[in-house]
Amino acid sequence: MAPVEDPAARRVAYADVPLRVEDLAPSPLAQFDRWYSAAVDARIAEPNAMVLATGGPDGPSARTVLLKGADARGFSLYTNRTSRKARAMAAEPRVGLVFPWVGMQRQVAVVGDVVELSREESWAYFSSRPYGSRIGAWASAQSAPAASADEVRGRWAELTARWPDTGCADDVPLPEHWGGYLVRAREVEFWQGRPSRLHDRLVFVAVREHPALDDPGGWRVERRQP
Known about the structure:
alpha+beta
């Protein structure tokens, strides 16, 4: 077996691409949209993948989830409401998000407060999912122990027989235990890698409680040291 590389010995030369205050869009949403579109154009794998960090009764935890919406209200995701992350968000609604666009030497970090989305909005997204994903929301008691992989697969097979794929959006009902969450930002940081670890960090900081992400008057910009 080949020896494992020493992580401390790995060096990456960062491009000298500055991020200046005058480069920013007027609002955090506009700037996020600009960088997200650039990540899509650069063919970053799953540019909507984000790390969700929580604290709660089970202690701190982080995991990668998928962004399903970014609008004036905030950033949205969907999950099982009995999962570890859902329990954590119910106990401690302050969360963090990180979009790690490593291939572009960029990241976006969000600090905010999470609230549940309505059942109507959850249904609108749930009904747009592929059939297998809708069955999967029923089949998995997310975060609970499983005796084997076959336990979940067996449940999935039972449910496909119960609710066969008819090609209609309502062939699988929305589970009571599944739905959406909205992260209402307090800070949105745009991080650009620079040489010698002198990275640029520009942060939109809310000047009042939960301003709209597209409201230029609701935010001030702060530069932070790398």
